[in-house]
Amino acid sequence: MTITRYAMEVAAACATAAAAVLIGASSHALGIGWSDAGPESGYFPFYISVLLLLGSLANLARALAGRRRLGQPFIEPGRSGAVAVFALTLLGFAVLCAVLGMYPAIAIYLCGLTWWRGGLGAGRAAALGLGVTLFLYGAFEYAFQLPLPKGPLLNLLGVY
C-alpha cells in the first residue's frame, strides 16, 4: 500500500488543527484577556493557536481541492533511505539537546549536517554552525530574555 501525498497533506492539516485546538483550550483556561498588569498568561498562545488553526484549515481546503494533483506517492520509490537518514539525524539532535543542552547541540547538528549532507567544507560548516549558534544565543538570552536549556557542558564552562 502506497501512502499518497494527498493522505499526508490531510493528516498533517488535521494534526496541526488538533494541536491548535488543544493549545487554544489550554490558553483559554489560563486566561486570554487583559488584567491590570497587562495581558494574561494565555493571551499570546491563544491567538497563535487561532492563526495555527486558520492555517491548518486553509491547508486542509487546499488539499481537498487538489486531490487529483496530490495523488503521487508521498515518498518516491528509492527515497525512503534519505527520509530515514533525516529522521535519524533529527533524533540524534534531540538526544544531543538532552545530553549537552540546546546551544552545543545546535552547533554540532548544523556543522555535521551541512558538512555531511550539504556538501560544505569542514571549515565553512563549522563557521556556519558556530555562527548560527552564537546568533541564537544572543537572540534568546539577551534580546528575548528567554534562556534555553544550557546543559552540563555550558554549565561546566560557567555559562548559566
From TrEMBL:
Keywords: Membrane, Transmembrane, Transmembrane helix. InterPro entries: DUF1468 (IPR009936). Residues 18-149 form the DUF1468 domain. Pfam families: TctB. The chain crosses the membrane at residues 41-61, 82-110, 122-140. This is DUF1468 domain-containing protein. It comes from Bordetella genomosp. 2. The lineage of its organism: Bacteria, Pseudomonadati, Pseudomonadota, Betaproteobacteria, Burkholderiales.
